């Protein structure tokens, strides 16, 4: 019934005079109908407060006014009418309905178990090595954008779909160490979160990795 009402409302909007008060009222009604339909699709408020998925520890959010993006389906989380969760370890956010579909393990666990950087600059092995699928969710991808655009992560060198790679920018440690290059590069969502959690950890032994850098960067000589 709601879907029928939405379609009828669309027809009314198109039939009414442009920018008229009646058309504006119809648009508001259309928005309310769509929100109500979305509310029915989502689980109710009886969701548990804590959910554990792939080492994520998800807590149900109480805020209703904050508007976030879902890390799984890449759509807006409407806190006013939708139930959503945030991982306390890596701050992965998603709708309640998207929790069973989460495919990315918590990067906080990765930082705890193996706190080290990828130190090769964009170690690309090609889309064929990934079977032309996203490195994270395994969705089909292609450089031609059919069926989905392949986006390369400058940190891992792997290719991701647009849902797992939002063109976030981050400084890549390998480029900084080998080239003293701090220009932010496009990285996947997973890499961005991993780099953010690792940034304060003193794990880079610069004198072992690139001792020649001390000959060219005056500030490093002073620090040493």
UniProtKB/TrEMBL annotation:
Keywords: Metal-binding, Repeat, Zinc, Zinc-finger. GO terms for molecular function: zinc ion binding. Pfam families: C1_1, RH_dom. Residues 55-106 form the Phorbol-ester/DAG-type domain. InterPro entries: C1-like_sf (IPR046349), DEF8 (IPR051366), DEF8_C1 (IPR047983), PKC_DAG/PE (IPR002219), RH_dom (IPR025258). Positively regulates lysosome peripheral distribution and ruffled border formation in osteoclasts. Involved in bone resorption. Belongs to the DEF8 family. This is DEFI8 protein. It comes from Dasyornis broadbenti (rufous bristle-bird). The gene is Def8.
């Amino acid at each position: 019934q709601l879907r029928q009402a939405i379609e009828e409302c669309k027809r009314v909007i198109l039939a009414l005079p442009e920018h008229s008060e009646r058309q504006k009222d119809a648009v508001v009604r259309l928005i309310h109908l769509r929100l109500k339909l979305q509310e029915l699709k989502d689980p109710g408020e009886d969701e548990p407060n804590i959910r554990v998925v792939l080492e994520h520890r998800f807590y149900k959010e109480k805020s209703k006014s904050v508007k976030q993006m879902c890390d799984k389906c890449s759509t807006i989380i409407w806190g006013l009418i939708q139930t959503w969760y945030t991982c306390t370890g890596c701050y992965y956010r998603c709708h309640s309905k998207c929790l069973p579909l989460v495919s990315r393990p918590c990067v906080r666990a990765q930082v705890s178990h193996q706190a080290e950087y990828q130190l090769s600059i964009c170690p690309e092995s090609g889309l064929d090595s990934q079977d032309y699928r996203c490195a994270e969710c395994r969705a089909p991808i292609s450089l031609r954008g059919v069926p989905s655009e392949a986006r390369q992560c400058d940190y891992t060198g792997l290719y991701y779909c647009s849902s797992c790679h939002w063109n976030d920018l981050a400084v890549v440690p390998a480029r900084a160490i080998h080239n003293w290059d701090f220009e932010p590069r496009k990285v996947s969502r997973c890499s961005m979160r991993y780099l953010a959690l690792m940034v304060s950890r003193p794990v880079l032994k610069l004198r072992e990795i690139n001792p020649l850098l001390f000959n060219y960067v005056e500030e490093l000589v002073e620090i040493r």
